[in-house]
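Severity: low
Component: inverse-folding endpoint
Summary: output formatting inconsistent between runs
Steps to reproduce: submit the following structure tokens with default settings.
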């Protein structure tokens, strides 16, 4: 996906967030922003930035992996007390 966010070298891996409440409300009530992509690079001569789009399937995978990581680390920290 292409985007027009201002970027500098080293921004690869940064999230692309949407804050338009009309769009966000379509997905989930009560949140203020949604990550829709990850900045991956640019083409300075053409003034283009590009990102990897986070599709619903990828979003579900990310959420599942974060929950697994959180649960594994929570169990480890509880064991150390």
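Observed output (run 2 of 3):
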């Amino acid at each position: 996906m292409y985007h027009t966010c201002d970027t500098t070298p080293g921004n690869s891996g940064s999230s692309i967030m949407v804050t338009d409440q009309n769009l966000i409300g379509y997905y989930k009530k009560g949140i203020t922003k949604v990550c829709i992509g990850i900045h991956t690079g640019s083409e300075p001569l053409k003034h283009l930035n590009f990102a990897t789009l986070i599709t619903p399937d990828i979003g579900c995978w990310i959420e599942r992996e974060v929950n697994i990581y959180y649960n594994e680390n929570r169990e480890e920290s509880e064991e150390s007390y």
